[in-house]
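Protocol step 4 of 6: structure prediction from sequence.
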Amino acid sequence: MVMLRNSRKRERGQSKKAFKVKPKRSKKEEDFDEVVSSDSELDGTEIVPKVAEQSDSEDENETAQEKKMRLTKKYLEELKTIKEQNATDDEKDLVGEQLQEDVLEKAGRLQKKIAAKCLPPDEGIIKVLKGHKLSVICMAVSSDGLLLFTGSKDCSIIKWDLKTHKKLHVMKGGSKIDGVCHRGHVLCLALSTDMKFLASGGRDKLIHIWNPNTCEHLHTFKGHRNAVSGVSIRANSHQLFSSSHDRTVKVWDLDALAYVETLYGHQDAAQSCDSLNRERCVTTGGRDGSIRIWKIVEESQLLFHGHSGSIDCARLINEEHMISGSDDGSVCLWSVMKKRPIAVVQQAHRLEGVPKSREMWISAVASLTNSDLIATGSSDGYIRLWKCEGKFLKLTPLFNVSVPGFINDIRFTNNGLFLIAAVGQEHKLGRWWKLKDAKNFVYVIPIQGNAENK
């Protein structure tokens, strides 16, 4: 028994001594602090002394691997602290705002506060582009805001430089022109985001595809049985949507220059179409009193009712809101989550002293994408700008810009610096009456609150 107890005591003593022995470290591990010291200088700020002071207070029994991890974490934390200290408050705010905008834009709910910065422009700084012989009907603006394409009842398409306000090229049309061209009124234009394709549609039932840089003709899409009233190329893609007076909406692939499918549903002539980033298209159904959003992937559609007359124009504000105009004189603000409009402005372009029997048709609407700024046009001699109040709950008038004639199309440049109007003596869809004092011009209107160099 005595010998057994002595042997147990010796074993306990040996185990205690073994526990107190520190693990042997390699030469590489012992030099770790020096390696960190040599690489840890940033803009003249020394990090290692702080790390070294803190490391002395750590547990002496930690392993070499644990010590490496601890020192590395502290080193990264110090780097992060220095970068935050060097960054200004303005930079931090800009980064935060940009991240928040990206999240809202992806969700389709972004609303930049632009309208409050806009002021009525002086008439002397409004530029006038002259070139079309008949009423200007449609436009397409490049994503960088440098180029403009316009279409007219004279069957031609003109390419403009928005910096010099000069014509760059004329694609003539009409029955007397040889070669590929539109034989009827050019009713709609659309540009791809990357400036590889320009699509044009007209009363000749054709969609022509052009190279916008060289103005070379690439292809002709045939398939509609009546006038092509609207074309739209989905943002950051080569998917083309077209609407027609034959009551159909068609989908085309510009990469393959091929037809994809036809969408049915409208009970009257489809008057316009528009699209943004999502694989869906919004169209107006004229006298059937409907606006439809076609969800291509889901193979379904959303149906909206609110106007009492023919719905002639609509534009998406973002992926969840849109604006529309009708020949009943009303302007409606919509949410894609509701079948009825959120806000309605009756007789939005009504003039004093004009008989009620002659309603001021809303012939064009425009929105600055992902903002609170809206514009509407009619034949009352004014373009009216509006602000979407709150979370798209109300339309508040801002100011009017005097432009005589039928406002057949209006567009904002993507940077919000300019509003461009296609104006004519006649309405884009007919000759019900003619305004003799008007001119067939394109007006480039600086929005003073946004444009630094007008």
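Step 5 (inspection) to follow. The two ends are 106 Å apart (CA to CA).
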